[in-house]
Specification:
It is built from twelve helices and twelve strands. Helix 5 crosses helix 7. The strands form two sheets. Strands 8-7-6-9-10-11-12 form a seven-stranded parallel sheet, with helices on both faces. A five-stranded parallel sheet has the order 2-1-3-4-5. The relative contact order is 0.13. The chain has 318 residues and is an alpha/beta fold.
């Protein structure tokens, strides 16, 4: 059986091993695959493993040997699911692998806003502290989180992980989610979106991207927030209307934002958030701890192994 991995670099830049896949078939790994090379590189492979490389109807028609598509990710919008199912192709994803890493990263974004550690470290290394008249200095307001309210939109596994860390820092945690459970109630208090917007000092987005959540942060919802609120997003970029957020940052309505995702990735040079005030942007790395990527690798291998035993798991259907 031939297995081809089309874009393995972000999952494994060299610190993990592909041997688990290699044990299951004849393996070829590409770090990246340009669109024009997808069909040629798949060839007659039966198993295709991808992260963000698109598998279109055209590709499926040209590569009729494909029997299995394994995603090295949770999202599966890069695959034409309908066309794959018409051909009996099994598609699997990784539903939960980075809960701890992504929850931790959300709080890291918040702490960077509160303390600007990177900025002050840079200033010290450039000699400013050495030349300073006083024994210390700071260039931004330093914010203590204890006693403040964190509102979490989307209170699933990751939202609850972030909430538990925030609670340990002394924050009050409130949440909005259609699905409520006892685990969530131990960490925070469920309430409506409007109440959450009005009461939160910090708002963190952890909801999936659905038609109902696309653009959930916009000029209308921003108007319902406290003046000077902090906004975090390491879920999906399209949850935010980016021009509306940029306007709110530049006016001071929102004090600061920290984002690990944007609507188009890699980010485009004309994204209004690049020039907005007090906006931290990182390149979609919440998921990328070595531990998280190893977990992803293990699940992806288990998915393929289960398929080969005719016991498919984590399958995707339209």
């Amino acid at each position: 059986m031939k297995i081809v991995i089309l874009d393995g670099y972000t999952e494994n830049p060299g610190d993990l091993s592909w041997d688990g896949f290699r044990a299951l078939g004849e393996l070829t790994v590409y770090d990246r695959t340009p669109g024009e090379d997808i069909i040629e590189r798949i060839g007659d492979a039966e198993v295709v493993i991808i992260n963000k490389t698109p598998i279109s109807r055209e590709t499926l028609e040209a590569c009729s040997g494909i029997r299995y598509i394994g995603l090295l990710a949770t999202g599966y919008n890069v695959v034409d699911i309908e066309a794959a199912q018409e051909r009996g192709v099994t598609i699997t994803n990784i539903p939960a692998y980075g809960t701890a890493a992504v929850g931790q990263f959300a709080i890291a974004l918040l702490l960077e806003i509160c303390h600007h550690i990177g900025h002050h470290n840079k200033e010290v290394h450039e000699g400013r502290w050495e030349k300073n008249t006083d024994w210390c200095f700071w260039d931004y307001p330093l914010i203590e989180l204890a006693g403040k309210t964190l509102g979490i939109i989307g209170f699933g596994r990751i939202g609850q992980t972030a909430g538990a860390i925030a609670k340990a820092l002394g924050m009050r945690v409130i949440a909005c989610d259609e699905i409520q459970n006892e685990t969530g109630r131990v960490i925070g208090e469920y309430m409506s979106l409007e109440t959450l917007l009005a009461q939160s000092d910090v708002i963190s987005l952890h909801c999936p991207l659905f038609p109902a959540t696309q653009g959930i942060i916009n000029k209308h919802t921003i108007a319902k927030m406290k003046d000077g609120v902090i906004l975090l997003n390491n879920s999906r970029g399209a949850l935010i209307v980016e021009q509306d957020l940029a306007d709110a940052l530049n006016s001071g309505k929102i004090y600061a934002a920290a984002l690990d995702v944007v609507s188009t990735e890699p980010i485009r040079g004309d994204n209004p958030l690049l020039k907005a005030k007090n906006c931290i942007i990182t390149p979609h790395i919440s998921w990328a701890s070595r531990e998280s990527r190893q977990r992803l690798m293990d699940i992806a291998i288990d998915n393929l192994r289960a398929y080969l035993k005719n016991e498919p798991q984590n399958t995707i259907s339209k």
